[in-house]
Structures are given as C-alpha cells and as structure tokens.
Design brief:
The complex is a heterodimer of chains A (345) and B (553). Chain A has seven helices and 19 strands. By secondary structure, chain A is of the alpha/beta class. Chain A has three domains: 3-99, Roll (Ubiquitin-like (UB roll)); 108-203, Translation factors (Elongation Factor Tu (Ef-tu), domain 3); 216-339, Nucleotide-binding domain of ferredoxin-NADP reductase (FNR) module (Rossmann fold, 3-Layer(aba) Sandwich), CATH 3.40.50. A six-stranded antiparallel beta sheet of chain A has the order 11-10-13-8-9-12. In chain A, helix 4 (225-238) packs parallel to helix 5 (259-268). Chain A is globular and about 65 Å long. Chain A starts with a strand and ends in a 6-residue tail after the last strand. Chain B starts with 28 loop residues before the first helix and ends with a helix. The chains are: A alpha/beta (345), B alpha/beta (553). Chain A: Pfam families: FAD_binding_6, Fer2, NAD_binding_1.
C-alpha cells in the first residue's frame, strides 16, 4: 500500500504535512500524528470537514450529497473524513491552525440545569460542567459545537453552543426535536434536570473572522440560530465595531424563538439589526415574507455592500444564500457556513 | 506582504524578508500590509504635527497617538486586522484635526502646509480598498529607483523609531511625556515622509534616532522609578506556590500595579512572565505580598508555559505569539497588543481577568523553592561602585561582559548561554532584556561579595547600563570604549534596533551583534558600521570571549 505526503494549508497560512496511506482517510492519517482536524460525524454525513483539494489525485468515499454535492465535488471540494489519497496531495482547509488540536479532547460531564421548550419543537438545553479538579470553565470559541452523549446509550450528537465562553461551566444549546432523532427522543421522553450528560469538545472552525470593519451578516435557519447567537453575544461582550445583522429564517411565525435574547442583543450591541424572515407568514405578519436567501439577495442589491456572510442551517438554505451572495458579487472568501444535517441512525 | 523587521525574518538566497501569505512571526499578509499603511498614515500625522509645533500649537494628543500606533506595528504586538482598520481611520482623523488647528492658528500663513502622499491619503472605505492603498507603500517602496542601501537605511530609521515609540509609549502610559520627545518623533517621521535618498544624511539621521532613544529611555527610567521607586536587589521565587494565579507578561509596570490593586485580598497570586520579571525589584510593586514570583521562560516558550499555567494570562505589550487552543480563552490583551478573537481589556478594567482567576484551579501545591536575584539597576550597582573599582584595580575582576537584548527561538541563540556560562570566573556578566532567561538560573557565584551575574532589568534598562558604563569610565578616567567592558547584543525586534542606535550614537565600539545581522542592513551599510563602530557579528562563544579578553589585555 502506497503512502503519500499530504500538505494541509490552513486558512491562516500554516502549512502542515503528514503521511497518509491509500486506505486511510486524511482525518485518520492526521490523527495518527496527533493532529486532530475539526470533524463531526466522520462518515461523510455532515459536511463539517469540507476542504479543497488544491493538487493531487484522490478517491472520495461514500458521502451524503447534502454534505457535498456532485457539483461541489466536481470543483474539487472534499470531505476530509472521506478522502483517500492516490498520490501526494495539497489541501486547502477553511479553518485556522488553532482549530486543529494536538491532543484528543477530554470528555467532561455536565449536569442538566434547564430543559425548556422555547418554540415549536425547539428545546433550550443548558448544562453545567462539573469541576473535575481543573475548575468549571467552559472554554470555547463563539460558533463552535460540542458532541453530547446520550446518557446510557453512548451515542453522540453534535450541537452548536448558543452562549459564550464563561467561567461558570455553563453550556447552552438550542435543539430542534427531530421526529426519529435519538437525542430528540432522549430529550422528549427521559431527560430531566440533574441528568449527567457527557460532553466532547469544543470542536469546529465556524467562528468569527477579523476582516476589518467589514459588516457581518448572519443568516440562520431554525436552530441554526445557536452559533449565531453565540457569535453575536461575543460581539456584544467585546463591543466589536463591525455593523451586524441577523436574518433569522423560519417557515411560520410560531417557529420564531429566542426573540427576548435577540431583543437584548439589539440593546447591547450598537449597530445590530434583527431581520426575522417568515416564509409562509400569516396575514398579521409585518416583517419580511420569504426566505432569508430572498432577503439577503434584496438587501445586497439595495445596499451595494459585500459583507462577511455567516450562514448556518439546513444545506438547502446555505446553498441558496451563498448562491444569492455570489450573484450579487460577494466573493467566496467572505462566505462562512456550517451545515446542520440530521444524523443517520 | 513584505516584512523584514525582525531577526527571524525569512532568509533566502533570492532575498531576505517574509513575503508570503504569512510571516514567520505569525502575522498574516493582510495585517502586515495594514501595518505598512499605518506607518504611512503616521507620517502624515507627523507632518501636520510638526507644522503645528512650529506654529506654536503643538498637539500632544497627536504625539501620543503616533507612539501608540507605531507600537502596535512592532514584532509580536498586534495581529488583529480589525484593530488596524480602526487605527487607520483614527490616524486620518487625528491628522485632519491637527491640520485644522494649524489653519486656525493666527500665524498659519508663515509656514507652508505640508504636502505629499501621506498628507493627501484618505482611508479607503473597506478592507479591499485599504489593501490596494497599502500595496503602494511597502517598507521597501522605491527599491528599483533608489537601491537597497537607501531602502535599508530608511528601514533602519523606521524600525529604530518603532522602538523609540514603544519605549515612549511605556513612559506615556505611566504619565511621563516630554515635549522634546514628541518633537523628535514628529521630526523623524516627517523626515521619512520626504522619501530621503542621501546616504550620509540617512546615516546621520539614524544616529539621531539613537540620541532620541537615549532621551526616551531616560524618560522611561524616570517614569518607572518615579512611580515605583528605585530597583533594589531582590530574590524572586521562580517556583509556583499553591493558590489561584494570574500571569502578567509584557513590559507595562502600570498594568501590573493596577492588577495588583484589583486582586489584593482576593486570594489570587500574581506571577510575572518574561520581561515583567524586573517588576519584583521595584519597592512599590514588591510591597504587594501577592506578587509571589516569576513563571516560565522567555517569550518564545509561551505556548508551552501558558498552556501549563493554571490561571489567566495578561499580555501587556510585546511579545505575543499565536495562542494555543489550550489557553486561548484565558489570555487577555491590553494596551497595544491584539490577536483576533482574544478579549482586549482597556483602561485597567481587569474584572474578566480576576473572574477567570477565581474560576480556574490555580496551583494545587507549592513547588520546591528556587530563586533568582534581580534588581541590579544603576543605583544598586553604583552603590557598590567603590568595591567594584577596587576589585578591578586589584585584578579580581578582569572584565565585564554586558550580554543583553532579546531572546528568540533560533538555535544560534545558544551562543548567549554559552557565552555567559563560559565567561571566566574573574569576569562579571551584566544582563538585561529577556535573553537572560537562557542563563539566569545558572550558579555564577560572586567575586568578593559582588555577584558575578547582575540583572539590570528590562531591555529599556539599557539606560542603566549606559549610566553604569559612564560612571565606571569616569572613575577610571577613560572612555567607555577603553573600559574592560564588552557588549554582546542579542537582537530580535525593533526596541533592540533603537537601543543599538543609541549605543552607536554614544560612540560605543566593538559591539558583538547576533545571532544574525538584520536583513535590512545591506553589505554597504554593514561596511560603514564596521568601519565607523567596529560592529562585529558573533562567531562562537569561546572565540569571542577570548577575543574580547585579548583586546582588553
């Protein structure tokens, strides 16, 4: 079996290299030399490990088309967990060097402190991390996610954090209840205050970028709001100077949630605008009617700006928003996204 | 990007300098280019401010802005492009405000308004536009027309001025400013704005920067001693003690004092890191019982040292390098420092730092006690000058080596530890800056009660070294160059460039400079420095010690 040399170029210009055999995925080969790349499902299902094959031949293993469309694969976009080299490769990663850990993440236990239905089939889950001798601190970057392990089942699911790093060990998640979901089933039927949930993380490279005073537009579909809330809260904490707006897309008004928090943000973060987008709004709806992609397209055309665009939610939403942005001349280097896909099994 | 301001810059047969997507310090191309544009913008501020001064309406706010802005562009200070975009807009506003003051002055017509690209520049509305503007003003602008010697000398002056600005900013934040310093900064940056091409004039101006820096170091010395007392020899614990902990790095003693006040009685121990070590020798600071010790090595070890430190870290000035994931959420920046995504604390509002310290575990147990002694400032050394002079006259002290400057990661820097530990037992080693971390735990012993290793303090305490050398020369009725004293300088960034220019301006000869020579010093300029000042690159410790002792003999 041939072993090939892989050069990984991070977004912030660091060049890492590691050997990879033809039957090893890039994620596995990197881990073998203690480079833990930001991944979620490790099975081609979530799209969290998308990168670009700049040079070299490779085989792309089975994957969900929502995580990586045939069109994107044609453009040499790859999933690191599904890429098997067939020669030396050069890979461009859309995350910074600091997102690559040098040791596996140590799981930490957390107690359920809140379990509230905050919208139609949307639950706010709060945990408090245990102090295992190293303090309670919840240290993560706004926009990152954790994997939560269903008590007693050992099954993990990834959820974005909605709050910001803190010293009290507080973790806040906004979770959409899926009809057949394993974690959803736990939340609906068994979960109670005080349950101990094992957490793995933080993980992920969907985080704020410093690009001068360029406006930051956030687009969230449903519970894709969680990382946006985290980033906006951090902007408020730091009093970041960039003008920010949030397009919060739902199908019906009743699905809107966290409006109190978003209202508080408008008070704490100067230059912040909330734009709820309701696709099938009732007659009384005064706000924007349509999808966030429609709203973004119209506003980009009207305002003539090319903001940084952070999108999180279902792949169809991300694709539509990014298509709209490209149509309006927003360069790819301004586009950041995190795909929310329901886990299989 | 093109940047060759620090010692570790990329060295290639095709030419030296970092010119890819990211410099070796970790600075990305966007940030590097914005820094170039900020230097350009500061020239415009200086031009207007110089005219204002000549019109009798000097503007010290503009002066303070220039110091801070230039400080942010030093190596390992600020990596946040957003901060630079803000500073660029501020620079234009400051320049235009000073311009309005000039025009409102009754005698405005007596001095012509300045002109040139830095005066006419208006910041572009977005990052892309600013980067287009930056492309016109790299540090090596005009290379094809004026040649590498002129470009290199302009860089030498600019980098020296960055060091001057950093030291003057340290003094200014402690409440010490001086008209002549602001005037000197305005003059030097105005000179650079004129795109000078005459080599003798450039060399002469470089030495003027050295003289200005001497005044600035004297001012900073007055600020430090005025605020915190005269340093005195102090044993500093370098082993942790049990309890909650905060680590303070950088040079800003005012930040440290404010933090000591805010943590008093809270059960939090404060540790110094890197160049903050000399803080322990200042009476006002060492009076705080919770300033318990020093932690870690020099700046280049911070990724390991900070990851292992069980509390938050405050970075008050250079040198920050990319924070590792293990401590990224608990490192805070202050003053000129910045890194994307790190929390920046202004106006001594250290609440988040204190909260982090209380939440994080701290050290669980005392480690076996180990100490080093610091605080041999000029007062302490000159206080025993009689004994020192007697020891020299009696032949007990054969030679002094001043081994000072910055540390760094390059393997060639072992030279400095080899030099210090290899210096014969009848010689005394004076040290300052962070290069000392390579040897300050070595047991040097003493000569007739005089410690063989005397730690003078931070790099800016070169002022103390100069005063000590001057006093010894007076005592022996000779020039500094005739003293049994050799200077072995380890440079890394622009503060060291300023100090080097000061030493040259004072006529100090035969300095050993390393570990490598600055990339911006061209062969012709080096030849001039060798001819005029006897500057020599380092070779190996053993040979250089022997050469120094032979020269003295």
């Amino acid at each position: 079996m041939s072993v090939h040399s892989i050069a990984l170029l991070t977004r912030d210009g660091e060049r890492l290299s590691f050997p990879c055999a033809e039957d090893q995925s890039l994620v596995e080969a990197a881990a073998a030399v203690d480079l833990f790349l930001p991944v979620v499902c490790r099975e081609g299902g979530c799209g969290a490990c998308r990168a670009t094959a700049q040079e070299g031949e490779y085989h792309l293993g089975p994957h969900s088309s929502a995580a990586l469309s045939a069109e994107d694969a044609e453009r040499r976009t790859i999933l690191l967990c599904r890429t098997y080299p067939r020669g030396p490769m050069s890979v461009g990663a859309p995350f910074d060097r600091s997102r690559i850990l040098s040791q596996a993440v140590r799981p930490r236990g957390g107690a359920v402190t809140e379990l509230t239905l905050v919208g139609e089939r949307t639950v706010r889950l709060c945990l408090e991390l245990e102090d295992e001798g190293e303090g309670r601190a919840a240290e993560f970057e706004a926009g990152q996610y954790m994997e939560l392990e269903i008590p007693g089942e050992g099954v993990r699911r990834a959820y974005s954090l909605a709050n910001t790093a803190n010293w009290d060990g507080a973790l806040e998640f906004l979770i959409r209840l899926q009809p057949q979901g394993r974690f959803s089933g736990y939340l609906e039927r068994r979960a109670k205050i005080g349950d101990r949930v094992l957490t793995h993380g933080p993980l992920g490279g969907f985080t704020l970028q410093e690009h001068g005073l360029r406006p930051r537009w956030f687009v969230a579909g449903g519970t894709g709001l969680a990382p946006m809330l985290s980033m906006l809260r951090r902007m408020a904490d730091y009093q970041d100077p960039q003008p920010a707006r949030l397009y919060f897309g739902v199908n019906r008004e009743s699905e809107l949630f966290a409006l109190d928090e978003l209202g508080r943000l408008a008070e704490e973060l100067p230059g912040f605008t909330l734009i709820p987008c309701v696709w099938r709004a009732g007659e009384g709806w005064q706000g924007f009617r349509g999808t966030p992609a429609d709203a973004v397209r119209a506003d980009l055309a009207a305002l003539g700006v090319a903001p940084d665009l952070y999108t999180c939610g279902p792949p169809a939403l991300i694709d539509a928003v990014e298509r709209a942005a490209r149509e309006q001349g927003v360069p790819d280097s301004h586009l950041f996204s995190e795909r929310f896909l329901p886990s299989v099994a | 990007m093109f940047c060759y301001q620090c010692e570790q810059t990329t060295r290639l047969p095709s030419g030296d300098g970092c010119a890819s997507a990211k410099g070796l310090c970790g600075k990305d191309a966007t940030t590097a280019d914005l820094q170039d544009l900020l230097v350009h913008a500061v020239k415009g501020v200086a031009q207007q401010a110089r005219r204002a001064r000549a019109l009798g309406v000097p503007d010290h706010e503009a002066g303070a802005f220039m110091l801070h802005a230039l400080f942010t562009t030093l190596t390992n200070v600020n990596f946040n492009p957003t901060r630079f975009v803000t500073l660029l807009n501020e620079a234009a506003a400051v320049r235009d405000r000073v311009k309005a003051r000039c025009e409102a002055a009754p005698n405005a017509a007596t001095i012509a308004a300045p002109t040139g690209p830095a005066i006419e520049w208006t910041p572009a509305a977005d990052l892309e536009g600013l980067l287009v503007q930056a492309a016109a003003v790299p540090v090596n602008a005009g290379l094809a027309e004026v040649g590498e010697d002129v470009v290199g000398l302009r860089a030498l002056i600019l980098y020296g001025m960055k060091g001057v600005a950093a030291y003057a900013n340290h003094a200014a934040v402690l409440g010490y400013t001086r008209d002549t310093v602001f005037a000197g900064v305005e003059e030097a940056m105005d000179f650079l704005a004129s795109d000078p091409t005459d080599v003798p004039t450039l060399l002469d101006r470089a030495l003027s920067v050295g003289r200005l820096n001497l005044e600035v170091m004297e001012l900073l010395d007055a600020a430090n001693t005025g605020r915190f007392g005269t340093p005195c020899p102090t044993a500093v614990r370098v082993a942790p003690v049990a309890g909650k902990a905060i680590l303070v790095s950088g040079h800003d003693l005012g930040d440290l004092e404010a933090l000591l006040k805010q943590t008093a009685g809270k059960g939090i121990n404060v540790y110094t890191h890197g160049e903050m070590l000399p803080a322990h020798s200042y009476p006002t600071l060492k009076a705080y019982p919770h300033l318990v010790g020093n932690y870690g090595g020099a700046w280049q070890d911070q990724q390991t040292d900070f990851a292992n430190f069980p509390g938050p870290i405050l970075m008050t000035s250079n040198c920050i390098i990319e924070p590792g994931p293990r401590y990224r959420q608990r490192i805070f920046t202050a003053g000129p420092v910045g890194w994307p995504g790190l929390r920046h604390l202004t106006d001594h509002q250290f609440g988040p730092l204190v909260a982090a310290a209380l939440a994080l575990p701290g050290f669980k147990a005392d480690e076996p006690e180990q100490t080093i002694t610091v605080g041999f400032g000029r007062d302490a050394v000159l206080g025993v000058a009689g004994a020192v002079i007697d020891a020299v006259k009696a032949g007990d002290i054969r030679h002094f080596f001043l081994i000072g400057g910055c540390d760094g990661a390059a393997s060639g820097r072992n030279y400095y530890s080899d030099f210090a530990t290899g210096a014969p037992d009848d010689t005394v080693v004076l040290t300052l800056g962070c290069a000392k971390y390579r040897f300050n735990r070595h047991e040097f012993g003493a000569i007739g009660g005089i410690p063989r290793l005397l730690d003078l303090g931070q790099c800016n305490d070169s002022y103390s070294a100069i005063r000590i050398a001057g006093a010894l020369a007076e005592a022996f009725d000779c020039s500094v160059n005739d003293l049994p004293l050799s200077l072995v300088v380890s440079w890394f960034e622009q503060k060291a460039a300023a100090v080097l220019l000061t030493l040259l301006a004072l006529g100090i000869r035969n300095i050993r400079l390393g570990p490598t020579l600055p990339a911006f010093i061209t062969p012709n300029v080096l030849a001039t420095l060798v001819d005029g000042f006897g500057i020599q690159p380092i070779t190996n410790a053993q040979d250089d010690i022997a050469a120094a002792l032979n020269r003295a003999a």
